[in-house]
Write a structure and sequence with these properties.
The complex is a heterodimer of chains A (245) and B (401).
Chain A: H1 2-37, E1 52-57, H2 67-76, E2 90-97, E3 103-109, H3 117-121, E4 127-129, E5 135-137, H4 147-151, E6 158-159, E7 178-179, H5 185-189, H6 196-200, E8 206-210, H7 217-224, E9 240-243
Parallel strand pairs in A: 1-9
Antiparallel strand pairs in A: 1-8, 2-3, 4-5, 6-7
Chain B: E1 6-7, H1 14-40, H2 55-70, H3 72-78, H4 89-109, H5 117-122, H6 129-152, H7 160-183, H8 196-223, H9 229-259, H10 264-273, H11 276-298, H12 306-333, E2 342-346, H13 360-383, E3 387-388
Antiparallel strand pairs in B: 1-3
Classes of the chains: A alpha+beta (245), B mainly alpha (401).
Amino acid sequence: MSEKQTTNESRRGFVAGGVAAAAGLAIAPGVTLLDMAHARPENEAASGKNRWGLLIDTTKCKTGCTDCVTACFTENGVKQGDKETDPQWIRKVELKDLHSNKTASLPMMCQHCAHPPCVDVCPTGASFKRVDGIVLVDRHICIGCRYCMMACPYKARSFVHEPLTDQNPDVPRGMGCVEACTLCVHKIDRGDNNTACAEACKEGAILFGDLNDPESEIAKRVATYASTQVRADLGLNTGVRYQGI
Amino acid sequence: MKPIVYREIEGRSAGYLALLGVLGLLAAMGLGSAYYMEHHGHIVTGMTNQIVWGMPHVFAVFLIVAASGALNVASIGSVFGKTMYKPLGPLSALLALALLAGGLTILVLDLGRPDRLLIAATVYNFKSIFAWNMILYSGFFAIVGVYLWMQMDKMMYKYAKPAGFAAFIWRLVLTTGTGSIFGFLVARQAFDSAILAPMFVVMSFSYGLAIFLLVLMAAYAWSGRPLGDSVINRLKNLQGVFIAGALYFVVVFHLTNLYFTKYHGVESFILLNGGGITSLFWLGQIILGSLVPLAMLYHPKLGKSRTAIGVACVLVVLGGLAQMYVTLIGGQAYPLSLFPGYQESSSFFDGAVHGYSASLPELLLGIGGFAVALILVAVAVKFLRFLPESLDNHAVDPHGK
């Protein structure tokens, strides 16, 4: 009897130890990855300690290259089109100085302003800014009035004119609502720590990071080199900065 | 002076029923268009991601602006104590409510998600001028409704003056709010100006009075009731003053912009080389919508002709629609300047003038809103006592205050 009990106990001990070891093995890499990416767990809210942003080096951005655009559209399930009604979350803008003829090429998307005019004008509060600086549209309460599109100085927003198919489950969209670059919020929230456009740029012209973290590459570069905010005169404090223009 | 007697119109004539039939058909076509747009998406309109507000907004904003202007006649009677205008007060307030209802019908039915109207009515972002406007519109219905009651109920008439005063202040705030929808758009060169708010207020005087005059003349002509020259002369002279006032604001607005080099691009687009927009500005808004009716109203002979006054008022309405088109569509057609000093181009039409042509459903929705407003007026004057039996020279008091 006692021999049988001892056997059972040792068996239980083995199973418990095994489960614990397996659990440890399963969780440990995740914990390590979480730590490496400085990502927050799924149930933790976005933090005001972060200010996510992009630094775009226009001297590296090549005219005619649209890798960032394609990557964005693929990531977010946006069908690429050239009609005036087609949504464009990101676009390549070609610039030519009217006097010197100097040219530049750069990607333009939602600038994730600290004081976004789209959020100010939205009647229902569907346009909102997350504490970490990402400007988004709440598709549940957007009534499709398009006032935000009138207010955006960057023409960054699009209205969905047609029924949608083949949506990416991570990026819900809807006909009759307004949408724009989300700074790949779904990727940030799962700890990818990068955006699709930045990942796709072979020239390394797009740098994603936390502008609030002085140790981050983006904060160091913004502190070291001259960078520009588009329409800085409006005082919107954009989360997307440009170099070389 | 005999007391003013208000009475319902008979509303059984073939003409009345035909009028309701035509208006009903137009309203139904408007509703059908809204359903079609809602079902297929805005792809069936001429609106794009560059011209985001189109023909429905031209009609809607015009009607909303005209609504507050239509209330002026009542305000002149109640607030400023002009006896001659008092008998016109109920119709003035009714028309104001009806025009606002027509304008809002269009605005709501053009939303990308009209099914979410309840959200718009319950969830507010108080920093948004749009949200303020929703409160201003609801308040307008309530205050003008009460004002109407005070005017029409003999027991309550003693409160008509304070109610009229409240309605007058509210309507000024409302049109200031409507003008500020555009005035608050910091990024767009064609808007972004504090003068838009008072300009819209003065324009509302003109558009509202023109519609009031047309409705008044039509109602009295078609119901066979007397309408004396005293009333018409006063109102048409006032119409002239309002047209001139609106013109003054337009001149100041453009002169100021012309003085600032950074606005030269957008100004030359509107005033010189904007194609259809430029033609609509000069021919529609300025010549046919302002100068011609001004000349007609003050012309020694034409100014006495009811037909000429009617034509002048129709021109003011069409000129008003032209003005809204130039302001709204013209303001969006001119490209946003993201990089001043640079020539811009992109797949999203940066740096390019954006084209727009309204589709039939949009046009029908706009006309449908007009029809809804007029149906409300036509039905209301049949069932309630809005119209004095007589407005001949003896019935009103042209020599009074």
